């Protein structure tokens, strides 16, 4: 399988690591460490040295309860970093739901649009939609993510019932809408949206049944990195979850990334690139000895 993007056809026969570049002062995971242009550019280069295959640049936090960011401010944060990142020789993804940001980033040479709204959000004047921007581009890749409700409210009333059929149906419909606008299947990647309006058990259900998501035939991207569900199952009390720092989330995050790949993920979106790359090399070595394909393998327990 290959994921077609603006400048690259990404070979997914081996799992790919997408490194997160948060150009945000209020990120839940890195506290705005890379909010300045200089810091974000340096972080891009550091992630590549650590082994990242793809860079994912975002200017607006989508943590639960995060306020919306004005368009002009997001453009000012993201575009200078994208302008540099596209010179580094790897696919560049832009994490945004705003059509204007998508268009500006693609005009600079970005390869992928990674949208938590799955291209459903429209500008206030209803003049432009993300799906129109993507459909008008001849080659860009797109990642469609499932999100229940919106960042401001998604954890106030999480999903109910069997999570997988709901996520499958949503993502399939979103992908079909793009097909109808002429976007080829090879350009589309899907993401179940771990933590976006789901309970802890629902998130782990999505992991355990991830192969069913892959059966849709699209590339699968998963982001478990530093998510609160990992803290919830590794801490002795709920009170300790909120104070858990990034070092404490490293081992659970890396473990979840390896399990996601073992369960069929083609791309894992992570903060801790070096450790994730190392862990996936161990998995690849085991598969090679067993005679399995070094990329996507059998689910855990098969």
Quick synopsis:
With 302 residues, this protein is of the alpha/beta class.
Structural notes for this entry:
It is a single chain. The protein is α/β, with parallel strands linked by helices. Helix content is 41%, strand content 14%. The chain has a single domain, classed as TIM Barrel (Alpha-Beta Barrel), CATH 3.20.20.20. It has eleven helices and ten strands. Helix 2 (71-85) links the parallel strand 4 (54-58) and strand 5 (92-95). The radius of gyration is 18 Å and the shape is globular.
Structural class estimated from helices and strands: alpha/beta
Main beta sheet: 8 strands, parallel, barrel
Which consecutive residue ranges, at least 5 long each, have pLDDT under 50?
none
- Give the tally of structural domains: 1
The CATH C-level class name: Alpha Beta
CATH topology: TIM Barrel
Second CATH tier, the architecture? Alpha-Beta Barrel
| Beta strands, count | 10
What fraction, in percent, of the residue positions are helical? 40-55%
Q: What fraction of the residues are assigned to beta strands by DSSP? A: 5-15%
User: Which shape, going by the Cα principal axes?
Assistant: globular
Number of helices: 11
How is this fold's topology laid out?
Elements: E1 2-4, E2 9-11, E3 16-22, H1 37-50, E4 54-58, H2 71-85, E5 92-95, H3 99-107, E6 112-115, H4 130-136, E7 141-145, H5 163-180, E8 188-191, H6 200-208, H7 210-214, E9 219-222, H8 228-234, H9 238-241, H10 246-262, E10 267-270, H11 273-290
Parallel strand pairs: 3-4, 3-10, 4-5, 5-6, 6-7, 7-8, 8-9, 9-10
Antiparallel strand pairs: 1-2
Helix pairs in contact: 1-2, 2-3, 3-4, 6-8, 10-11
